[in-house]
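This week, study the protein below.
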Amino acid sequence: MADTPYLVALALVEFNGQRSLPIAGRSQSDAAARLGDPGQEGLNLALELLLRLWQRSDGAPLQRACGETSLLLLEIPLADMSEQLPVLKARWLADGNTEVFQAGLQALAQRGWRVLFAKYEPVTLVAWP
């Protein structure tokens, strides 16, 4: 299980005019890590994060910070998740350089997806980058 990547959902948003980067994550099962995408497990994690954001919007306006790349689902090794992701997050929150942030995420992630929704269509995971 130590080699199994950690599944992480990230939302690049602005909350009350300030950048925010809420994160939700969990260990994947070995079977899920072997699939082509994180399937229902990944969608559930993204939904959990979106529900937290929705509840938070009671207090102030909320908007996506990066359009269609504002909600990402990534597989990241656990060590990188706990050591390097916080550094990337702090840097993005401070300077807002999305290109540098996303390049850092791409370097960390073993695989990644954008979580997309279109009217009358199911939620889909699209390979990212």
Summary: DSSP finds five helices and eight strands in the chain. The longest strand covers residues 6-11.
